Amino acid sequence: MHFLCIYVLTTPSPPLAHTHTNTPSLHCIISWEEVENFDSDDLWPEKAFVLINSSGKASVWVGSEFDEAGDDVEAYAKKAAEECSKVSGVVYKEVEAVADGDESDEFWDMFQLG
Known about the structure:
six-stranded mixed beta sheet, Severin, 2 helices, alpha/beta
């Protein structure tokens, strides 16, 4: 079983109403439960995550063992961000795919805020 988790700059309140903050948060798409005090250790290779920065950019991180993304990680990233947007109500200005091992410094900087 695979779980897709979401990093968003909003804090959910039932029923998924969001208040924008400058601190990213981690949410599992299956349960929408928030992971407190997340760090890079939460990026498991068998999962995928969406990391949202303060400018509205969604970085969809796909773990090296996450099979559901298939060969087209870019298409999967767009689909995952669209699903997250539908559920959370957050609209993303930009979506990028990030493969496990190809993370940018900007991506890792967001973990210092989490």
